[in-house]
Write a structure and sequence with these properties.
Layout lengths: L4 H7 L3 H20 L18 E4 L3 E5 L3 E6 L5 E6 L16 E7 L3 E3 L5 E7 L3 E8 L13 E9 L4 E10 L6 E11 L5 E5 L5 E3 L11 E3 L5 E4 L11 E3 L5 E2 L5 E6 L4 E6 L13 E2 L2 E2 L3 E7 L11 E2 L5 E14 L6 H19 L17 E9 L9 E2 L4 E5 L16 E4 L5 E7 L2 E8 L7 E2 L4 E3 L4 E9 L7 E6 L37 H5 L6 E3 L5 H4 L7 E4 L2 E3 L1 E9 L7 E14 L1 E5 L9 E2 L3 E3 L13 E8 L6 E9 L8 E10 L7
Parallel strand pairs: 25-33, 35-38
Antiparallel strand pairs: 1-2, 2-3, 3-4, 5-6, 5-11, 7-8, 8-9, 9-10, 10-24, 11-22, 11-23, 12-13, 12-18, 14-15, 15-16, 17-20, 18-19, 19-24, 21-22, 25-26, 25-29, 27-28, 27-30, 30-31, 30-32, 34-45, 36-37, 38-44, 39-42, 39-43, 39-45, 40-41, 40-44
Subcellular location: Secreted
Main location: secreted
EC number: 4.2.2.23
């Protein structure tokens, strides 16, 4: 190796530094062997062994560990400054104190509360760690002005970690008045002159516009206020791009790391979320990450991609308490600007791995955040039984299995108050859900390639330290007969269907590799261009769903700001028909927003449809580039006499047309024959 043992002993002061040194040296060695640019040149900030210091004054609280200097306003609990390396404050110090780093909640009828606190308490103060709690107890005399909620905003700075941990403990007591809490988050407004490069994933990384570029003199507002076309941006290379914060949304299970890079300083600012247990709506709930500002968000609760169907309403008499976080605000730097973006991103991913390995943290000092030994574990194996596919039981490969509040199958999608714990099965269906907080749960699952939701018909009580073995569980997905034909893949998204190229004037380099075409702006309008002469017609056996099934069933734009309902046709042939049997149309929806799907068989002119979903959905997934919202499944039983031997047609009419966004996305459609069809 490159350093002798004496050098190592001199440079490495503790075990953590030794591990990080070995990782850096190994990275250098492997990079040299592969000929790649070394994924290093991180400044040797791991060498800092400065103790954590705390200063409290009338107006500010300062925590300094030699790597970061964190300043919090006293007693409001707003994060007003983070000094790192040569950057005096990575937050935008031109903003008011309450608009730099802050918690906020959107509650009843769009009321807005930034959760200003009244007191500060030192929870822990040692050379290795400082934990503070900024608190406020709700006072019934002020119920008409402030959110009825007891607040604890906690900050932790540790020795040797270039960043700070943040978490909140929020409580409603039984006598608190009712309230709706639509959104809970932490927001960070970074220094705009420096942070201009945003990274959300390996593929979603780009130079971002400045906030001034969204002003009227530099942009044109598009179909909704969040989306603008950059006409005269401060960076000419961005001219013609669309800026729309929803293009950078991700699913909860993928939303673990995102942030910004200052190219001038080769400094990164990252939000690291090692667990999703405190987020709502399950692993596929989508939410915002970062957007123009530069703004970085840690989202905990929202109605994005679900609408108000997610439960965020708290009744009077309903006691509630929940811990959100901790999340880590992590800063890093590179010693060279040569490939510094890759270096900083890879180091942030390394830190994420370390945080995940350390979860649940053992350094927090709240009794409301149980450590590992105070949690439980659930193990088992999930198999699938579908006698119309194969007679044998099938392994549920890569299925999502989770614990959430007791409810109906699939209710975890709209569960907005409790904790959820999810994992994926291995290749033979085994799962292990670890570090589960004590409480009452149901076990839920869904399996890629199969419709419907699984729920174990058993309440699960997690006790501290216990390990529950559930053995082999069998999922019997909805099925009434053999498959006659199918369209799509049961994966709860519309991603496999035809996603058109965007309009050239709205083309945007959102992803590095051109993937995720659904993130482009304006795709919903392409339907009216592509199907000018008539609506979509899909012929089973001839058509290909990846080319011939549009990703969203939207109204037709006929000009003059007018839309009309659209009817899609599925044409297919039946060699024989059992008129006395019952057929089943399995209709799985990936998203719905103020929509209604009417189903007719072989006769479009009937006044009443055979089946209607009625008006459903608030997820707004089409304009928000979500490719899915809430999953819905309709098993529609149809008597055999409605079918014909030979050619048949199913008509799907999306009746709502007040706007282009009243639409559905299909996940999967299957026609099943009756059991006795071939007897």
């Amino acid at each position: 190796m490159r350093l002798c043992l004496l050098d190592i002993m001199e440079k490495v002061a503790n075990r953590r530094q030794l591990v990080l040194w070995v990782m850096i040296e190994l990275s250098l060695f492997l990079s040299a062997c592969s000929g790649e640019v070394p994924a290093r040149k991180l400044l040797k900030e791991t060498g800092s062994n400065t103790r954590v210091r705390l200063q409290i004054s009338n107006h500010h609280v300062v925590i300094d560990n030699g790597l970061v200097k964190v300043t919090i306003q006293n007693p409001t609990g707003h994060l007003v400054g983070v000094k790192y390396k040569g950057v005096e404050n990575v937050l935008e110090n031109r903003n008011a104190n309450h608009n730099r780093g802050y918690w906020d909640i959107v509650w009843d009828e769009d009321a807005y509360d930034k959760l200003e606190t009244k007191h500060v308490e030192v929870i822990t103060q040692t050379d290795d760690l400082v934990e503070l709690s900024f608190t406020k107890k709700w006072n019934s005399r002020n119920h008409d002005k402030t959110l009825p909620l007891n607040i604890q905003k906690r900050f932790i700075v540790r020795r040797g970690i270039p960043g700070l941990y943040m978490y909140g403990i929020f409580e409603r007591e039984e006598d608190f008045p009712e309230a709706q809490m639509y959104q809970i988050r932490i927001a960070f407004k970074l220094k705009e002159g420096r942070f201009q490069f945003m990274a959300v994933s390996d593929t979603i990384q780009r130079i971002m516009p400045r906030s001034e570029d969204r002003e009227k003199r530099r942009s044109l507002t598009l179909d909704f206020k969040e989306a603008v076309l950059l006409t005269n941006p401060s960076n000419p290379s961005l001219k013609g791009d669309v800026d729309d914060k929803y293009q950078y949304s991700t699913e909860n299970h993928e939303n673990k790391l995102h942030g910004w890079i200052s190219d001038d300083d080769a400094v990164g600012f990252w939000i690291i979320t090692p667990s999703n247990e405190f987020r709502t709506g399950g692993p596929h709930k989508q939410d915002l990450t970062s957007h123009v500002g530069p703004t970085a968000l840690s989202m905990f609760v929202s109605t994005h991609y679900t609408g108000t169907e997610i439960d965020t309403f708290y009744k009077q008499g309903e006691a509630w308490k929940k811990v959100f976080g901790p999340v880590l605000i992590y800063l890093n730097s590179a010693s060279s600007k040569q490939d510094h973006r890759k270096i900083l991103w890879n180091d942030a991913k390394r830190q994420l791995s370390e945080e995940i390995e350390s979860w649940p943290y053992n350094f927090t000092r709240s009794e409301d955040f149980p450590h590992s030994e105070q949690r439980g574990q659930v193990n088992g194996q999930l198999l699938v039984q579908d006698r119309y596919m194969v007679k044998e039981l099938m392994q549920a490969k890569s299925a999502f299995v989770g614990l959430a509040a007791p409810g109906d199958a699939g209710s975890w999608q709209t569960e907005g108050k409790g904790y959820q714990f999810w994992t994926q099965t291995d290749n033979i269906g085994h799962f292990s859900i670890k570090n589960v907080r004590p409480g009452e749960y149901n076990l839920y699952a869904w399996v890629h390639g199969f419709i419907g939701n699984y729920k174990l018909d058993l309440n699960i009580t997690i006790q501290p330290g216990n390990k529950m073995e559930l053995g082999t569980l069998i999922y019997d997905p909805p099925r009434n007969g053999p498959t006659l034909w199918e369209i799509g893949v049961p994966d709860r998204t519309a991603a496999e269907f035809f996603i058109p190229e965007p309009y050239p004037k709205f083309m945007n380099s959102i992803t590095k590799d051109g993937s995720d075409k659904f993130r482009q702006y304006g795709l919903w309008e392409r339907y009216s261009d592509i199907y000018r002469e008539g609506d979509l017609v899909y012929t089973v056996g001839t058509s290909n769903y990846s080319r011939d099934w549009f990703f969203a069933h939207v109204p037709r734009n006929i000009g003059n700001s007018t839309n009309q309902a659209t009817t899609w046709q599925i044409k297919y042939s039946l060699q024989k028909v059992n008129e006395n049997g019952t057929y089943t149309l399995q209709l799985a929806l990936a998203a719905a927003s103020y929509a209604e799907v009417q189903v007719r068989f072989n006769n479009l002119d009937t006044d009443q449809p055979y089946f209607t979903t009625k008006r459903i959905g608030y997820d707004n997934a089409v304009p928000r580039h979500g490719i899915h919202g809430l999953y819905r499944l309709y098993s529609i039983n149809v008597p055999g006499y409605r079918f014909r031997r030979g050619d048949n047609t199913i008509y799907l009419t999306q009746t709502r047309n007040r706007s282009s966004f009243e639409a559905v996305m299909y996940d999967y459609i299957r026609l099943e024959g009756p059991n006795s069809l071939f007897n």
